[in-house]
Amino acid sequence: MSPQIRLLDAGDAALTVEFGDAIAPGLLAAVNALDAAVARLARAGGLPGLIEAVPTFRSLTLLYDPLLTCRADVEAALAPLLVGAGEAQSASGRHWRLPVCYGGEAGPDLEATAAAIGATADEVVALHAGTEYRVYMLGFMPGFPFMGDLPERLCLPRRAEPRLRVAPGSVAIATGLSAIYPWESPGGWHLLGRCPVRLFDPAAAEPSLLAAGDCVRFEPVSAAEYARLAAAVAAGELPPAHWRAEAAAGGGR
User: Fold this and answer.
1) What is the predicted pLDDT for the residue at 21?
2) What is the rounded average pLDDT for all residues in the chain?
3) For residue 84, is pLDDT > 80?
4) What is the pLDDT of residue 92?
5) Dist CA 17 CA 66 (whole Å)
6) Residues 7-65: tens digit of each pLDDT
7) Contact between 165 and 174 (Cβ < 8 Å)
8) Residue 105 CB burial class (10 angstroms; 0-12, 13-18, ≥19)
9) Integer Cα distance of 105 and 118 in angstroms
10) CB neighbours of 200 closer than 8 A, spacing ≥ 6?
């Protein structure tokens, strides 16, 4: 096991495997590789009592039933999986192209963000939409993707005064990350625009559109095009696969 990997108790019914202390592609690759290996082992019956594996930016937490197993047994089952785990290579996730209406009512912080970095609103849009983002983890609320790595020029601290309500679909930035709010909620990130794509469907076989390891590019659209796409999504005319980059390249939109 790599010396950088730490095994930590998370209460009396969970074990966390920590790979490092940063947000970095290499750590994401290690977490995702272990998550996949744990899933395979669990399906084969090698982790009795495992309830769930929860990946984050830099760690994987295993929740288990203490009436069926214990930390020692979980750690013993993990030992073979941790050999070389810190050197995992980034797996090729799915690629998505998601439309965003920037500025105006959809992106109330676009102008302030531009002023904060000494740029124009168009330059902020070009910077944000010109970057491919990797989904590092889902959290905060169902389907909420934490995506990096934001261009350094756009790295701003969270707002001093969080909003009580952020509209669903809001595309936002804070620190070195970008995100999309799947639901209305409070939030302290800077809102640049809005995306009409549904990020979480509890009735779907895979409720979250995005997963850790996926790559996302944003495509600026007009307010009129946003309204058209939002109506089509609401009517069920655009399935999740429509937003895959391969579908967009084939002329799907």
Assistant:
1) 87
2) 92
3) no
4) 63
5) 18
6) 999 999 999 999 998 888 888 889 989 999 999 999 999 999 999 999 998 999 999 99
7) no
8) exposed
9) 22
10) 142, 143, 182, 183, 207, 208, 209
Q: How far apart are CA 232 and CA 99, in angstroms?
A: 13
Domains, the chain, ordered by start:
6-87 (3.30.1360.40), 95-249 (2.40.100.10)
Q: What is the 3-state secondary structure (H, E, C) of the chain?
A: CCCCCEEEECCCCEEEEECCCCCCHHHHHHHHHHHHHHHHHHHCCCCCCEEEEEECCCEEEEEECCCCCCHHHHHHHHHHHHCCHHHCCCCCCCEEEEEEEECCCCCCCHHHHHHHHCCCHHHHHHHHHCCCEEEEEECCCCCCEEEECCCHHHCCCCCCCCEEEECCCEEEEECCEEEECCCCEEECCEEEEECCCCCECCCCCCCECCCCCCEEEEEECCHHHHHHHHHHHHCCCCCHHHHEHHHHHCCCC
Q: What is the Cα–Cα distance from 17 to 12, expressed in whole angstroms?
A: 15
pLDDT tier, 253 (very low <50, low <70, confident <90, very high otherwise) = very low
Other Cβ atoms less than 10 A from the Cβ of 177: the count is 20
